[in-house]
Amino acid sequence: AQTVTQSQPEMSVQEAETVTLSCTYDTSESDYYLFWYKQPPSRQMILVIRQEAYKQQNATENRFSVNFQKAAKSFSLKISDSQLGDAAMYFCAYRRSNSGGSNYKLTFGKGTLLTVNP
Amino acid sequence: GAVVSQHPSRVICKSGTSVKIECRSLDFQATTMFWYRQFPKQSLMLMATSNEGSKATYEQGVEKDKFLINHASLTLSTLTVTSAHPEDSSFYICSARDWDRGINGYTFGSGTRLTVV
User: Fold this and answer.
1) What is the mean pLDDT of the segment spanning A32-46?
2) Which residue in A104, A110, A112, A115 has the most chain B C-beta atoms within 10 A of its own C-beta, making it the best mutation to test that interface?
3) Which of A22, A89, B77, B114 could connect to B33 by a Cys-Cys bridge, CB 3.0–4.6 Å?
């Protein structure tokens, strides 16, 4: 079974600074997808960024970028120019490329609570 | 964009009663619905997956007779917590998958906080 590990329960960053959240995963699959989701205090889950395993280029969405290291099974999220609105719980998630009977379910890590200090 | 409406947002019920939580996809067809449970400051734990018109598939350790899932239409799925007990108190979230949107097609409801007294 696939597992997703986020080793940082909490992180803090100063406004306008950069922070990196870590995520590692375990899988025997060669093709899969990885995601970062944000859950603000409203508890609404919001997709931040995704990465296809077959792509070597790291995904970027404005101030958010990832460092995808397939061999190391590592998928970290970098938030640049941190803003107060970035404060939230961040979840790393994995999904198989092929269903394999899994209904394309997402497997989540335990999350990292990010605090942004003004 | 795609929206999933989840109701109620909060519910308090007495021990032994049943509670129904609804998730509706407002502008797309939710071929698959995922139901999660989230404890405070913890991750989302998948409880079950349902495909429209089929019986739900439950994760190991989840009592299917206690957590009844119905996905009778492409826009509505319900989770009924039967004979609720205080240990069922939690935050429940649904997520609908829209096949037409491919890999980005996971839309989450805003969650339901269930308190059993």
Assistant:
1) 94
2) A104
3) B77
Per the CB < 8 Å rule, is A91 touching B44? yes
Judged against a pLDDT cut of 80, whether residue B25 lies above it is answered with: yes
Q: Where are the beta strands (DSSP E) in A1-118?
A: 3-5, 10-14, 19-21, 24-26, 32-39, 46-52, 60-61, 64-69, 74-79, 88-96, 107-108, 112-117
Output the CA torsion sign for B55, B75, B115, B41.
positive
Chain B residues inside the 8 Å CB shell of A113: 41
| Chain B interface includes A1 (CB < 8 A) | no
**What chain A residue is nearest to B98 in terms of C-alpha separation?**
A104
Q: Which pLDDT score is estimated for A101?
A: 62
Q: Is the minimum CB–CB distance between B73 and chain A shorter than 8 Å?
A: no
pLDDT score for B99: 73
Tokens of B35: 């139901």
How many alpha carbons fall within 13 Å on the CB side of residue B84? 21
Predicted pLDDT of residue B20: 97
